[in-house]
Amino acid sequence: MRFALLGTLRVADGEEWRELDGAKLRTLLALLLLNSGRVVSREQLAEAGRREDQSPSSLGALYNHMTRLRRALGPDLGARIQTSSPGYVVRLEPGELDADVFEVGLARGQAALRAGTWAQAREEFHAALTLWRDDVLADVPALHGHSRAMRLAEARMTAQEGRIEADLQLGRHREVIGELRALVKQYPLRESLHANLMLALHRDGLSAEALSTFADLRGTLAEELGTDPGAALQDLHQRILRRDPTLEPDAAPAPAVSPVRPAASPAAPGPTRQLPADTRLFTGRREELAEVLAIARGGGPTGASETVVISAISGMAGIGKSALAVHLGHRLSPEFPDGALFVDLRGHTAGLEPLPPEVALEQLLRSLGVPARQITGDLAARAALFRSRIAGTRTLIVLDNAAGAEQVRPLLPGSAGCLVLITSRRQLISLDDAHSLTLDALPDADAVALLRNAAGPGRVAADDPAAGELAGLCGRLPLGIRIAAAHLRHRPLLGVADLVEELRQEGRRLDRLRDDDRDLTAVFESSYTRLPEPERHLLRCLGLATVSDFDAYAAAALASLDLRTAERLLRSLADHNLLTEHRLGRYRFHDLVRIYAAQRARAHCGEEEALAIVTRHLSWTLYAVATFIMVLTPGRVRPLDLEPDPAWEFPPVDSHAAALAWFDAEHSNLVTAVHHAADLGLDEIAWQSAFKLFNYVILCSSLEDVLELQQRGLDSARRCGDAHGQSALLNTIAIAHAERGTYQDAARSLEQALVIRRALGNRSGEAACLSNLGSVYLGLRDYEKSADALRQAVEIAKETDSASTLAMAYNSLARVLLEMSELTEARAAYQAAAESHELRGDAIGLAYSLDGLASVDSRRGELDAALDLRGRAAALLREQNDLRRLAPVLDNLAADEDHKGLTDAALAHRREAEAIRTGLKETD
To answer: Would you state the pLDDT for residue 378?
Structure first.
């Protein structure tokens, strides 16, 4: 199986390549391939699809497009696209994506170039370039601005320049002149291309044309940018004027655009090399390595930099920042012949204060051979001396474990030629000229590979399914994986499954992830102790909430903060890499940090206060659900009997779209809240939350999940002896059973609810129960029993002035009468239901009634009226995004269109209904 994006998007299952029809399908597949092995969120995919054709996008539509994409690829290729929260991921094997093969070839060519093996370099670059058929993703314009697409385009130019340099070193200057002329015309400001063209022309005896090329570039730069050519190009210009013999092919010159370094004194000692040993276990980080290597070697996206190149690598404790920096240092060390310096700045070293910058400067100066007596004065004087000593050199400097930008800034060189790699648990956002790279946990495959390598030969079988779970329980954190592997390596009787069983227990997980000199708890502690107390307080509170992610509103409620303070503290925790802002304004923990934060919270405040914090958050969540569900389904639920805390703040949810977006963002958190409240014995919160969530989850969750949630709420209502809660949840459980078609179960639940409501004397509740029973009996085809229950419901609803129940009872009674062919009575009942729903602003109920009225008209042969009514019903359901109910209305509409002879319209509506069902099935 192969995938290609270096040109038009193509796929192959076997030898024959084929292209995908449909711009949106190509865009979705291309985005997944650009992020192969990494999950792409549904939001990112939907946005990419929207950019492709400017059409509105929804998650429901996305499900349909992903199903079409898998179908278009075929079973084998389509199976590579997997659902993985919060979106989709494409799983590829090495060598299956042409971009990956190209990048490997590029790296080999660059290595050969550095080693001076010109023929091999030319062969590697040439092979890599033959993979390109056109511009990257030439037929997917929506992704031309994607970061990897742009990096690939730049890498293509790097490979082309590398191949040209190898050709020049091999004396093939005449062969490359035409190619270089075309490239210079295409990239008129790229000095490296002009340099190679000048050199090739000079070697071919066309020195006058070479000098003319320089003059043309100088004029272009002056006109476009107001600058002169760089020093290296000006030096080449002077050497051509002097007819410098070292420019001839057999002189094996240095690359034409390399800066000139002062020759080292014959008596000078060898350059200082302080990098720690590179670990043999370094695994993965291919994209991160490529990103930093490109910056280090090119200075930036357009070529050599005129300032010092700085790459700041940040990430949480144990994520592998230092290992990456050291590995990069060893990869780049041959390109920095004047030395490789290393300083541990002790920014987060347990038991030690961060290294003051003046002390760090003393260490650096001593490493450069400066006598101690000359290292005097204040911080500014030492920084100036350091900059002076390394000016004009090619020196690599690794500043490891930085506490912050203020510690690092005095240690930076002042002139071009040097590379600085900085690692820090904080994001050094105030280093304006730095290239920032934040490390995430290892991808699944790399995490398992590290586990297998670190555990030693034979300890982790290649096909052991427990290996992936073990890596996941270590949070795919390199330090955690290495510790787990050490246990396997030194305890031969301990199996992978045994260790998995131990780590599944959250309370013991961090205790087990330690060995003789490594301890994840201590590593996290060193980050925690550096925080100001307000950040510590929020971190502890967040650790107690069993939610997948949170925004500032939830954090403020949890920690009793005002919204602005919560926003500031969340950003601070993210800057310290103790939280991740995975979507704008939404944050989440790494699993192991969450466990640590919860342990710190309980140790700090005790179980009683911890319960009070969680209760406050769950109460806030319940109130938000109860408030926003009335916006999402107006007129269908009653307000909650709960007084909100005056200090609580809520997001501005004042429209159906805003309410739906809030529920979608909080979906998993809201379901978790019900279970969490029940587990803690907060049964009143648990059952009310489950009940209030029903009108949302019935729209977007599988019916099995709905039933599980409502049953959990019912169990809580029974434990706290709340009869009203029991009858309410028996009613919602019955509705879910009816939706699933298990009418006998629905009838049993409603009959239990009816007994409770009659015992309570709850007449309006009795009417609602009878109304639902009538609908269930209709499902069981017991029309007489159904009509009797519904007529009772209508009478009691009129008596108790229960408008919503009256509307629903009329709706259901009309359906029964329609089944009994009592068309006149059925139409009157549907009309009464429609008027009631419209008066109450219940759009979904109104859509039901309109569809029913259409069914009556259709039976009477009044097809124009039926089509109009069904069209109005479908429009209402689209506005409410109620896809589950929209599909059958579209089926009815198509049937009427067929009877009317509107074949094309009928076919379009059937296809739309089928696409909706496919998307819903994938969601379920």
So the answer is: 81
Residue 817 has, within 13 A of its CA and on its CB side, a CA count of 20
- Give the Cα separation of 801 and 34 in Å (integer): 60
pLDDT at 99: 92
Q: What is the pLDDT of residue 622?
A: 93
Q: In DSSP terms, which residues pair with 89 in a beta bridge?
A: 82
pLDDT at position 95 = 87
Task: Give the residue-averaged pLDDT of 143-157.
Answer: 84
Distance between CA atoms of residues 212 and 872, nearest Å: 73
Task: Provide the phi-psi class of 14: left if phi over 0, else alpha when psi is between -120 and 50, else beta.
Answer: left
DSSP state of 514: B
Q: Rounded to an integer, what distance in angstroms lies between the CA atom of residue 30 and that of residue 36?
A: 10
Instruction: Tell me the mean pLDDT in the region 606-635.
Output: 90
**79 backbone dihedrals φ, ψ, rounded to 5°:** -65, -20
Write the CB contacts of 360 (distance below 8 Å, at least 6 apart in sequence). Answer: 343, 345, 399, 407, 411
Q: For the segment 416-451, what is each residue's pLDDT rounded down to a tens digit?
A: 889 999 999 988 888 878 888 999 999 999 999 999
Question: Checking DSSP bridges between strand 580-583 and strand 586-588, what pairing results, if any?
Answer: antiparallel
Q: Tell me, which fold does domain 852-923 have in CATH?
A: 1.25.40
Mean pLDDT along residues 96-114: 89
Count of residues in the chain: 924
Confidence of residue 710 (pLDDT cuts 50, 70, 90): very high
Q: Tens digit of pLDDT for each residue in 241-272?
A: 888 887 876 544 444 343 333 333 333 345 77
Q: What is the spatial distance between Cα 770 and Cα 794, in angstroms, rounded to a whole number? A: 9
Q: What is the DSSP letter of 531?
A: S
Helix 42-53, helix 23-34: angle, nearest 10:
140
Spatial neighbors of 632 by CB under 8 A, at least 6 apart, are 656, 659, 660, 663, 695, 696
What is the three-class DSSP state of 704?
A: helix
CATH architecture of 626-851: Alpha Horseshoe (1.25)
pLDDT at 723: 95
Determine how many CB atoms are found less than 10 A away from the CB of residue 18: 13
Which amino acid belongs to residue 200? A
Identify the H or E element spanning 601: helix 591-632
List the CATH code of the domain at 286-438: 3.40.50.300
Which residue matches tokens 């001396």?
385
The residues facing 343 across adjacent strands are 399
pLDDT in tens, 56-89: 445 557 777 888 888 888 888 888 888 877 788 8
Q: Is the pLDDT of residue 572 over 90?
A: yes
User: Which class would CATH give 523-605?
Assistant: mainly alpha
Q: Are 690 and 652 within 8 A, CB to CB?
A: no
The DSSP code sequence of 234-259 is HHHHHHHHTT-GGGSGGG-PPPTTSP
CA distance 403 to 312: 12
The owner of tokens 């201590």 is 522
H-helix or E-strand containing 739? helix 723-740
Give mean pLDDT, residues 839-864: 90
Do 523-605 and 852-923 agree at the fold level? no
Residue ranges of E strands in 212-334: 309-314
What pLDDT band is residue 641 in, cutting at 50, 70 and 90?
low
CA distances from 389 to 259, 260, 513, 675 (A): 17, 17, 44, 63
Global model pTM greater than 0.70: no
Radius of gyration of the chain (CA): 34
Q: What are phi and psi of 3, to 5 degrees?
A: -130, 140
Please tell me the predicted confidence (pLDDT) of residue 845.
87
Cα→Cα distances 824→467, 827, 859, Å = 68, 5, 11
| C-alpha–C-alpha distance, residues 80 and 75, integer Å | 9
Domain ranges in the chain are 286-438, 444-522, 523-605, 626-851, 852-923
Q: Rounded mean pLDDT of the chain?
A: 87
Supply the pLDDT for residue 249. Answer: 67
